[in-house]
Amino acid sequence: MRNEIDIKYTWRLEDIYPTINEWNVDFNKVKLLENNIIKYKNMLSNSSKTLAECLNAYSYLLALTDQIYMYAKMKKDEDNNNTFYRSLTDKAIRLYTEVASKVSFVASEILNIPKELLSTYISTNKELYKYKQFILEIIRCKNYSLSTEEEKLLSLLIDFSNTPKDIFSTFNNTGIKFDTIECENGDQIEISSGRYIKLLKSSNRKIREKVFHLFYKPYSIQKNTFATILISSIKKDNFFSNARKFNSSLEASLYRDNININVYNNLIETVNNNLHIFHRYVNLRKNLLAVDKLHMYDLYLPLVKYSHENIHYENAISLIKKALTPLGTEYISTINECFKSRWIDVLENQYKTSGAYSWCSYNTHPYILLNYQGTLNDVFTLAHEIGHSLHSLYTNKEQPYVNSKYKVFIGEIASTVNELLLINYMINSSTNKEEKKYILYFYLEKFRGLVFRQVMFSEFEKIIHTRIENNNTLTSETLCNIYHELNEKYFGKDIEIDNDIDLEWSMVPHFYNSFYVYKYATSFFAAISISEQILNNRDNSILKKYLEFLSSGNSINPTELLKHIGIDILSTDYIKDGLNLFNKILNDFENMVK
């Protein structure tokens, strides 16, 4: 139970609101402010003073709304069975929707201000100058912006647009019933999403095979339902991209992040051109397992028996701080504050939200939710979330609210740099051959999960969205066929692509946040470049640039921001460099297991 957990392992949300009374005060304040901001409607072109006042009010209102929602949701995440905080979260979501609707006029009116007049406003009003990038971003989107009334209508569809995602989540979590399986010790265990990968790590191949087939059995039964939900989500994306006159859902998604569509296409093409390296890894697995034919249910069996388990939380903290020392004393000092001041909710408890995340509103310090079990994965998750948290902290310190919400494309880089510094530290500091072998294998699996798997997902998304956009039929059967062919291409000829894997598309939640997963791969490649530069640079010039990167938020577009730190995402060099590193690690691992 949560009340039995030592308080030092729980986060201190009282830093946001000491009691619910203060939350209610801010809630009522937002209700007042959202009505007051309407007074600026149809007035933004009157003067630079009026525009600056409106944007100040806009920023304050949205920052406070973020904070209200953040607190309610994190309290619910402590115990999802708590009806009071579930209700409070729903209340905060409704408020967020109201506020979004009330402020939707701002962007439309800025677009109606003559360009020359707007430029004069920005150059002559110091208070307005801090909003320059925000205004330029609105202007960038002018060709895809609608009238004030049309924008208001679309803002009212925010809740509705999440319906396919919500239906999928509910049905996947409550509508899927798994069979039980008898384990080697005779125990009957019910298969579940949470237990699936653990069961696939069984040394008993017959158990792995049975688990694999039983896991996909209910998805096979419900494949038409899942297909209908996913197709509805794709059609939703198509509706919004058409409404804003984009050529495709992919273009619309990348345009939001100010990413050239070639970045997406180059990623898929470059990885496809280098799949032979991944095929070599698959072949090595087949040889090490000494099987005539490798199957999909053999992919999670550890190739190295050495195991990092039961890592005490305090030991994980010590390890992470040593690994992140190259990021400088200020960075480490902030990490110390993070642990000392209870920014992290560490342990699992009944009804707590699963997984992990970092969350930071503009006027609060960041918080991290974990479900720490002492595995090596948990240690890397902690390092990852610290990366997100300090990125937010550095950004909020240097940027106005409107520039504080950095693009996800950029955000995943900061978190992954921490993971890569941790991997490098563990490889280089290990004196145990088996441990080093295990870390190299762990690194290879990172590549498999974050590069090859996510790029395959990205290619799948592109194919199925294009089919809908071209008015071609999409059914559960065509989804399965497309997915099967992609698995054949990505995994190569040394593995049997079991038909059950064709259904994997039906259980991937990321497909309801379309064209998101490619960022895992691009961020991984960019983080490799940054971490290698930091580790190999002796005069700290790269570190200075990296800390500036962390402080930039959304003040510079991602392409230019990454150029500042030596990465050209419009080229394929950073991808090729990352794949060359995968090849090197594979060679090192291969030499150690011979």
TrEMBL record:
Pfam families, A to Z: Peptidase_M3 (PF01432), Peptidase_M3_N (PF08439)
Function comment: Has oligopeptidase activity and degrades a variety of small bioactive peptides.
Protein name: Oligopeptidase F
Keyword Ubl conjugation annotated: no
CDD domains per record: M3B_PepF
EC numbers: 3.4.24.-
Cofactor(s) the protein needs: Zn(2+)
Span of domain Peptidase M3A/M3B catalytic: 199-579
Co-factor: note: Binds 1 zinc ion.
Similarity remark: Belongs to the peptidase M3B family.
GO BP terms, alphabetized: peptide metabolic process; proteolysis
Example GO molecular function: metal ion binding
Keyword Zinc (UniProt): yes
UniProt keyword terms in alphabetical order: Hydrolase, Metal-binding, Metalloprotease, Protease, Zinc
InterPro entries: OligopepF_N_dom, OligoPept_F_C, Pept_M3A_M3B, Pept_M3A_M3B_dom, Peptidase_M3B
All residue ranges annotated as the Oligopeptidase F N-terminal domain in the record: 109-178
Gene3D superfamilies hit by this protein: Oligoendopeptidase f, C-terminal domain, Oligopeptidase f, N-terminal domain, putative peptidase helix hairpin domain like
